[in-house]
Amino acid sequence: MRLSKKTDYALRVLFTLVEHHGRGPIPIRELARRNDVPKRFLEHIMLEMKARGWVDSSPGKQGGYVLAKEPARITMGEVIRQFDGVLAPIGCVSVAHYERCNQEAVCRFRRILLDARNYVARLMDRATLAMVFLGAPVQTREVFAQEFSAGDGI
Amino acid sequence: MRLSKKTDYALRVLFTLVEHHGRGPIPIRELARRNDVPKRFLEHIMLEMKARGWVDSSPGKQGGYVLAKEPARITMGEVIRQFDGVLAPIGCVSVAHYERCNQEAVCRFRRILLDARNYVARLMDRATLAMVFLGAPVQTREVFAQEFSAGDGI
DNA sequence: TAATCTACGACTAAATCAATCGTATTTCAT
DNA sequence: ATGAAATACGATTGATTTAGTCGTAGATTA
Ligand code: SF4
Ligand code: SF4
């Protein structure tokens, strides 16, 4: 789950938009400056986010981008999957992009990778922009332990 | 923490060597066949593992590779770091390869990535080949919760 | 002494990443 | 009206990484 620059940039900008939520559009120029993102690169990122319905745009003077969904209804998991494609450390433990491996039956360490993927996926899928913005705890590990033993094992 | 093929291949082979520990060398040809790894590619991987002191080799007939350390003294974390370089999802939360980001002071989501890196790093650094081979539980989440609150926070 | 191994550097093809550029189009303040 | 300011979007690129292959040299032993 190595984060690409694109994902990092997208998240930076999203949180800027969350902070400014309800107070009108911000132009790319400003988003790029405040988050230290190359402006021309950011254009593509914003286009992709618009296509996903996370942001909306208005052209012309006074134009720019606004958040199009409630911050509580966008998760970091969605953002990472959008830009990096896959969240799991390897195809054989991915849910969204599962790839069969013919060693699965005899593989000794797949369960460890699955554990990692489960923790990270749960964390990211629970991390809504709203909660993360507020600094709220996203996942208590006790809750995770309980759910885990309830079974999504190997 | 996307696993490269190289790392995956290395782990497959290591567990084969663990299984065969103490019963003489296995030639690359056999390691490659049993684990479905391209043989010529595996040569480089074995060289690197030999340099790290994880395996030892003997040439000639009856030659091949053996494990050079106790399975309890090699962790998956070491293997991943060796071949993928870094375990953390992004430079700003890496311990072994920290990269400063000038947004750190204002970044809203770094703490989430740090949480992910902490869980995965602990998991992998505890996952010795011996324990993983035996199927033993590597990290109870309760223990993790306790340690976490003891503080390696943001 | 020949068969069977490892050792190791050189090379490559393809994919991915991180952008940059040119240009078209829309909007609105004046 | 008009022009400044904004988004829209495809084309292109340069660097890096990935996932290998190939040729050959050298060691070991049945
Ligand atoms: S070897 Fe194990 S971990 Fe690697 S891809 Fe196959 S099943 Fe998954
Ligand atoms: S923006 Fe936040 S998460 Fe991304 S690199 Fe900077 S500090 Fe780390």
In words, what does this structure look like?
The structure is a homodimer of 154-residue chains. Chain A contains 7 helices and 2 strands; from the N terminus they run H-H-H-E-E-H-H-H-H. Chain A has 154 residues and is mostly helical. In chain A, strands 1-2 form a two-stranded antiparallel sheet. In chain A, a hairpin with a 5-residue loop joins strand 1 and strand 2 (64-67). In chain A, helix 1 (5-19) crosses helix 2 (28-35) and helix 2 packs across helix 3 (39-51). The first copy, chain A, starts with a helix and ends in a 5-residue tail after the last helix. At the A-B interface, helix 1, helix 5 and helix 7 of A face helix 1, helix 5 and helix 7 of B. The complex binds iron/sulfur cluster (SF4) (2 copies). Residues 90, 92, 101, 103-104, 107, 109-110, 113 of chain B line the site of one iron/sulfur cluster (SF4). Chain A binds a DNA duplex (30 and 30 nucleotides) through residues 4-6, 25, 27-29, 38, 40-41, 43-44, 46-47, 50, 57-65.
Secondary structure layout plus pairing:
The structure is a homodimer of 154-residue chains.
Chain A: H1 5-19, H2 28-35, H3 39-51, E1 55-58, E2 64-67, H4 76-84, H5 110-126, H6 129-134, H7 141-149
Helix pairs in contact in A: 1-2, 1-4, 2-3, 4-5
The structure holds iron/sulfur cluster (2 copies).
One iron/sulfur cluster binds next to helix 5 of chain B.
Chain A binds a DNA duplex (30 and 30 nucleotides) through residues 4-6, 25, 27-29, 38, 40-41, 43-44, 46-47, 50, 57-65.
